Records
---
Amino acid sequence: MTPVMPTVRATKPTSLASLARPARGAPYGPEGDAGAMCGRYSTARGREEIIDAFDVERDTTDALEPDYNVAPTKPVPMILTRDVRELHVARWGLVPSWAKDPAIGSRMINARVETVHEKPAFRRAFARRRCLLPADGYYEWYTREEGGKQPFFIRPSDGSMLAMAGLYEVWRPAREVGRGRPGGRSGSAGRSVGVGWSGWTGRDGLVGADTDAPEEEWLLSCTVITTEASDDVGRIHERMPMLVEPERFGAWLDPELTAPEEVRSLLVPAAAGRLEAYPVSTAVNKVRNYGPELVKPLPDLGISPGETPTLF
């Protein structure tokens, strides 16, 4: 499908240097959903580039389409480790094993690093089902004092890919009595899948599989772990995705590493100067727009693609 080519509408903030740090819990995004972060991001790298960058040994994807405006419930590339490091496509918005309806995933796009090891929706996945989500950058919306919101694109200052820390789950709907898995209860919650789905095994810590269930019923979903924003980007929004550096990929993805404090020790704040931010068109507010024009700096702010704009 050909991306919708929007008309660029430039919304000019007072100045980048004058942005005031937002209050905690300030609304984010074009619709003003409070308390969340990283509700849109860009993932447009080719499959081979992702495979090389993350040392993927098994590719399960058919194709990866570039998407410069990933929104909740959209498919995204995801790296995980079972016996080897693998590339999958998952739906953004984690569906916990106990969920009755996968629609809950639209509210599970982020998990706070401060509490992810404790929350019922995330703690089992945090122990054994961690992943990496490749991204070119992500969007945040700054609420201007004079009213309105200005979207910013935040990306690595060296042009590399972000490796966002994430969690994943494999879910299938419950079976009714007399159908599928013997002893199933009508109306019971969905179950995580242990074996059968594209070779998933008990090593993942997933139990209760119906190995005869049709593969198309099973859903692979994910969430992005977030942390307090660094000073580089904290003037736009108080939260940011937790990033994993290459030297920690192996440990973060290791399903045998399950001790919460050991896992938490792998997550450290982004280094100062790691990220840069610049204002972009409000066309990103609409999910139907997903082309490369969305990440271009606004021309009327005097910023060109060859420059390195910052917040300070």
---
Amino acid sequence: MLTGFYGVHGAGFLPLPNHGRYPRADFFDSQDHLVTECQALHSMAVGSRLAQLLGRRAAMPPAGAIADAARCPGVSESPAA
């Protein structure tokens, strides 16, 4: 639905496998703020999808970011990059 809306208006939309839905445990104070570990996981997923979209190879995230992402509370339910 959002893809079509943005497309009609000349913009792109990058859907992720989870459609932007995360378990409640992935947030720290509201539905708007992912915990650091889950933000790292989300950023890796976005980077991977952007690389595919642009036909480029994504760089490997730093080891610390990978370790952070692995500690995301809903990591078994969140999208992998």
---
Amino acid sequence: MAFVEAASGQVRARSTYRLSRDPEAGQGLRPPEAGTWAPRGARPVITVSARRKGRVNMTAVTAFRPGGRPHLFYKLHVYHGRKSEPKSFTRADYRDLIVATHHQLGTPIVWVWDNLNVHLAADLTAFAEANADWLQIFHLPAYAAELNPVEGIWSLLKRSIANFIVADLTGLTRIIKRKLKKIRYRPHLINGCLKQTGLTLGPG
């Protein structure tokens, strides 16, 4: 991505992907609201579960390379509302996501994310330093969500699952996976998420 081009001299631009990752998003059993249509005076009423506990947390990575096909990778974490389970992703989860993305792409990567506390953890910094031959990490400016292409992915996802009715977290997880998979195989949508940030890719 253009704002990390200064680092391209340290790695070969032709074999490097620029990646942007959103801290995470989440969806409970209550579906996102969206517009619909109905005969005048016959407003449709959809009954949903009032249960508050439990949600599906999501984190995603968009990968871009000049002249190459964009990629979307994602990871889900189902929180059932139990005291004994983590509510969200751990530092180890983020580390494993970086490694899995690197293995999928098979190239050095430039990893761009925000300044969430977990992203600044000492063990993640040490991990990046230990793998500097294929990994460079940069942080977005504070309060700069508009520069993150993954925000567009979440917008597409929420529009696609609006007004869906599910009985439990298993059903919700199934829908989210299916919708994210559809986005993954539509590169024009992923490229559109980059375009809306106003950022461009340079040759390096």
---
Amino acid sequence: MFPDEIVTPRLRLRPLSREEVDPLAAYDYFAASRSDTIEEETKYVTWGPHKTPKEAYDYFSEASEAHENAEGATYAIFPREGEAGAGELAGTAGFGTDWDKRRAVFGMWLRKEFWGRGYSGERAAAFFAAVFDVLDLEVALAYAMPENEPSCRAISKYTERFGGDEIGTFRNDAIDADGTPRDVRGWAVTREQWYEATGGEYDAEFHWAGDDRLECDGGVEAGDRFERRDPLEADDE
């Protein structure tokens, strides 16, 4: 049901799975003892650095199962040719679905070296098209901790672009890695707002397994990285 590849002008997104990313290699980049930047990269999300390789393996399994069961989609982000770091795993992005409420919640995490490129808005534009035009949902939401000012600015910018707005601050709505309740700010865009802003047009392609347009250059080996699932936006503009 969910696209097996999303292509934007600068990015290619593929489902996060053991076929795309080696969980053992990913551990090298998500363990505090092995990554110089993971503490900064996870400052405003609700998960902490991995303590064992089993955490990476279990997460990949959960992500694949959620994708297959249409419960949520988590994608590995690869910059396309012409971008610095083309072909590297820049981070991950995804959305959880609540079919009964007909809404999706966006989340994103980027490696520090890919901050500041505007990838958040480009990925969000593709996700809006996916949840509204492909999946026929009615509302898309995004959340960030108030202290995460770059992500708050990025979300504000892309929700305004597509006709949405901020919906408020939710007290103690998230739990961080050490169990502390944290406030979050929230934004929403409705399908009607998105369509009025875009006329239903978008600059993204969606491919499914078996589609001959599906790019075949994606396995990610040692040295690349992935994201732990998180409903918050954690990136830089």
